[in-house]
Amino acid sequence: MNFHDCFVKGCDGSILINSTSSNQAEKSAPPNLSVIGFGVIDAAKAAVEQMCPGVVSCADILLLAARDAVATIRGPYWKVPTGRRDGRVSTAADALANLPPGSANISSLKAAFASKGLSSIDLAVLSGAHTIGVSFCSTFTNRLYNFTGKGDSDPTLDTEYVTRLKSKCKPNDAVQTAEMDPGSFKTFDSSYYSVVTKRRGLFESDSALLNDAVTKAYVKSQATKRGPTFFKDFAKSMEKMNAIEILTGNNGEIRKHCAFIN
Ligand code: HEM
Ligand SMILES: *[C@@H]1O[C@H](CO)[C@@H](O)[C@H](O)[C@H]1NC(C)=O
Ligand SMILES: *[C@@H]1O[C@H](CO)[C@@H](O)[C@H](O)[C@H]1NC(C)=O
Ligand SMILES: *[C@@H]1O[C@H](CO)[C@@H](O)[C@H](O)[C@H]1NC(C)=O
Ligand SMILES: CC(=O)N[C@H]1CO[C@H](CO)[C@@H](O)[C@@H]1O
C-alpha cells in the first residue's frame, strides 16, 4: 500500500480514495488487486479523528501503519516525519501509468524508479519487500505455462521451481495464491535475495534484478541469512520513497474519512 500510494501522485493517501459514479479511483485499477488492508487505515483514522479532529492526514497514517507493520514482524524501523497532506485526485489511469507490472523488465523498472527520483540501488533494496506476502497465481502463471506462446515456461526461472509452482498454480486459477518468499513469507528478512539468486524470484520483475550489473551486485551481496546491510538500506530507501511529491502548506487537505475527498 505504501509503494502504491507513493508512486502514484506522491505519498498523498490517494490509494485510499473510493471510486464514485463519475471517477474510477486508483483502487479500481488492475494493480489494486494486491492491495488490501484499507479497513486498518480507516480504523486508525477514526480513532485519531476522535482525539484530534482535522489534524492528522490519511497519507501520514498510511505510512506510519506500514512502518509499524514491518517493525512488528521484526523488520527494520525507519523515521516517518509527519505533516503530509492528503491529495484530492485519485484516478485509475494514473495508477496504471506509474506502477510497473510484475512482468516489467529491468529497463522499465529502472525508468519507473528514476522518474520518482529513486536509483537502481533503491529498486534492488525496495524489491526486498517481497520477502513478505503472497501473489495471486494469475499474476505469474504465464511464466509457467505459455511464456512465449509455445506452451513453454520462462527460461530464467529455475526448472525445479517451475515444477513446484505448477503443482500449486493451475492455468486460469483466479483464487489460489503463492508465497513470494516460500517458508518465511510472514517474516521480514533478507531471504528474498537468496530466492532471487537461486532464480526463484516469483515475478519477472524479481528475476530482472539479475539483468543489470548494479542491481545484480546488490542481490548477490545480500543473499545470506542476515543480508549484511539490507535492513539499514531498506530504512533509507523507504525514507526516500516516503518523501516523493508530498503535499504541504495549503496544498491538498486533511481528509475527514480516508475513502472520501472532503
Ligand atoms: C519494483 C517494482 C515492483 C513490482 C513490479 C511489484 C509487483 C508486485 C506484484 C505483481 C505483487 C502481487 C500482486 C498479486 O497479488 O497478484 C506484489 C505484491 C507485493 N508487493 Fe510488490 N512490486 C514492486 C515493488 C514493491 C515495493 C517497492 C514494495 C514495498 C516497499 C512492494 C511490496 C509488496 C508486498 C508487501 C506485496 C504482497 C501483498 C500481499 O501479500 O497481499 N512491492 N508486488
Ligand atoms: C470503499 O470501497 C471498498 C471497496 O470497494 C469497500 O469495501 C468500502 O466499504 C468502501 N468504503 C466506504 C467507507 O464506503
Ligand atoms: C522493456 O519493456 C518495455 C515496456 O514493455 C519495452 O518497451 C522494451 O522494449 C523492453 N525492453 C527490453 C530490453 O526488452
Ligand atoms: C499459448 O499461447 C498461444 C499464443 O498466444 C495460443 O495460441 C495458445 O492457445 C496458448 N496455449 C495455451 C495452452 O493456452
Ligand atoms: C476494490 C476495487 O476497486 N477492486 C477492483 C480492482 O481491479 C479489478 C480489475 O480492474 C476490478 O474488477 C475490481 O473491482
UniProtKB/TrEMBL annotation:
<dbReference type="GO" id="GO:0140825">
    <property type="term" value="F:lactoperoxidase activity"/>
</dbReference>
<feature type="disulfide bond">
    <location>
        <begin position="137"/>
        <end position="169"/>
    </location>
</feature>
<keyword id="KW-0575">Peroxidase</keyword>
<keyword id="KW-0408">Iron</keyword>
<keyword id="KW-0376">Hydrogen peroxide</keyword>
<feature type="disulfide bond">
    <location>
        <begin position="58"/>
        <end position="258"/>
    </location>
</feature>
<dbReference type="InterPro" id="IPR019793">
    <property type="entry name" value="Peroxidases_heam-ligand_BS"/>
</dbReference>
<dbReference type="InterPro" id="IPR033905">
    <property type="entry name" value="Secretory_peroxidase"/>
</dbReference>
<keyword id="KW-0349">Heme</keyword>
<comment type="similarity">
    <text>Belongs to the peroxidase family. Ascorbate peroxidase subfamily.</text>
</comment>
<keyword id="KW-1015">Disulfide bond</keyword>
<protein>
    <recommendedName>
        <fullName>Plant heme peroxidase family profile domain-containing protein</fullName>
    </recommendedName>
</protein>
<keyword id="KW-0479">Metal-binding</keyword>
<feature type="binding site">
    <location>
        <position position="5"/>
    </location>
    <ligand>
        <name>Ca(2+) 1</name>
    </ligand>
</feature>
<dbReference type="GO" id="GO:0020037">
    <property type="term" value="F:heme binding"/>
</dbReference>
<dbReference type="InterPro" id="IPR000823">
    <property type="entry name" value="Peroxidase_pln"/>
</dbReference>
<keyword id="KW-0325">Glycoprotein</keyword>
<dbReference type="Pfam" id="PF00141">
    <property type="entry name" value="peroxidase"/>
</dbReference>
<feature type="binding site">
    <location>
        <position position="12"/>
    </location>
    <ligand>
        <name>Ca(2+) 1</name>
    </ligand>
</feature>
<comment type="function">
    <text>Removal of H(2)O(2), oxidation of toxic reductants, biosynthesis and degradation of lignin, suberization, auxin catabolism, response to environmental stresses such as wounding, pathogen attack and oxidative stress. These functions might be dependent on each isozyme/isoform in each plant tissue.</text>
</comment>
<dbReference type="GO" id="GO:0042744">
    <property type="term" value="P:hydrogen peroxide catabolic process"/>
</dbReference>
<keyword id="KW-0964">Secreted</keyword>
<feature type="binding site">
    <location>
        <position position="131"/>
    </location>
    <ligand>
        <name>Ca(2+) 2</name>
    </ligand>
</feature>
<feature type="binding site">
    <location>
        <position position="14"/>
    </location>
    <ligand>
        <name>Ca(2+) 1</name>
    </ligand>
</feature>
<feature type="binding site">
    <location>
        <position position="100"/>
    </location>
    <ligand>
        <name>substrate</name>
    </ligand>
</feature>
<feature type="binding site">
    <location>
        <position position="8"/>
    </location>
    <ligand>
        <name>Ca(2+) 1</name>
    </ligand>
</feature>
<feature type="binding site">
    <location>
        <position position="10"/>
    </location>
    <ligand>
        <name>Ca(2+) 1</name>
    </ligand>
</feature>
<keyword id="KW-0106">Calcium</keyword>
<feature type="binding site">
    <location>
        <position position="181"/>
    </location>
    <ligand>
        <name>Ca(2+) 2</name>
    </ligand>
</feature>
<feature type="active site" description="Proton acceptor">
    <location>
        <position position="4"/>
    </location>
</feature>
<dbReference type="InterPro" id="IPR002016">
    <property type="entry name" value="Haem_peroxidase"/>
</dbReference>
<feature type="disulfide bond">
    <location>
        <begin position="6"/>
        <end position="11"/>
    </location>
</feature>
<dbReference type="GO" id="GO:0006979">
    <property type="term" value="P:response to oxidative stress"/>
</dbReference>
<feature type="binding site">
    <location>
        <position position="26"/>
    </location>
    <ligand>
        <name>Ca(2+) 1</name>
    </ligand>
</feature>
<dbReference type="GO" id="GO:0046872">
    <property type="term" value="F:metal ion binding"/>
</dbReference>
<feature type="domain" description="Plant heme peroxidase family profile">
    <location>
        <begin position="1"/>
        <end position="262"/>
    </location>
</feature>
<feature type="binding site">
    <location>
        <position position="189"/>
    </location>
    <ligand>
        <name>Ca(2+) 2</name>
    </ligand>
</feature>
<dbReference type="InterPro" id="IPR010255">
    <property type="entry name" value="Haem_peroxidase_sf"/>
</dbReference>
<keyword id="KW-0560">Oxidoreductase</keyword>
<feature type="binding site" description="axial binding residue">
    <location>
        <position position="130"/>
    </location>
    <ligand>
        <name>heme b</name>
    </ligand>
</feature>
